Amino acid sequence: MKYLWIVLAILAVLSPLMWLRPSPGQLRVSRIRRQALALGLQVQLVPAADAEASEKHPDCVRYLLSTSGLQNGRDAEWVLLRSERRGEPSPWPGWRWFRSLAPVETVRKLGAVLESLPDDVQAICRDRQGISIYWLEKGGEEQLLKINSAMKKII
Description:
Elements: H1 2-19, H2 24-38, E1 42-46, E2 60-66, E3 78-82, E4 88-89, E5 95-98, H3 104-113, E6 121-127, E7 130-135, H4 141-154
Antiparallel strand pairs: 1-2, 2-7, 3-5, 3-6, 4-5, 6-7
């Protein structure tokens, strides 16, 4: 009986420590984000791509490819959402323009890469920082490579 109490006491002390261990999902996301940094992408927690200016709560993950050093670093800003209702129609089913449209040359590039993107990509946008893809991170490292390739083709 004495040993049972000792075992229970040890378990009571160790059990909170087990809660501190990262889950397998957290480890997977951490690996993906480290690989993104190695590829030259920035990973940011930001508001959704279609959030209003007053909505500043970061609830999405954005993978950003900076274009600050490139000649076309000051192109028009645009947002393409994976949505059926919000925004203006686009040439691609399931995607809609939000706030403004991309230049014609960029539209051609987008058409070539949209089908290669993972299904959990929520938005693609261009702003003063560069090309961004809003991704739910449900896939693995192979989806990250597809996203990286797509962003480089859009530039």
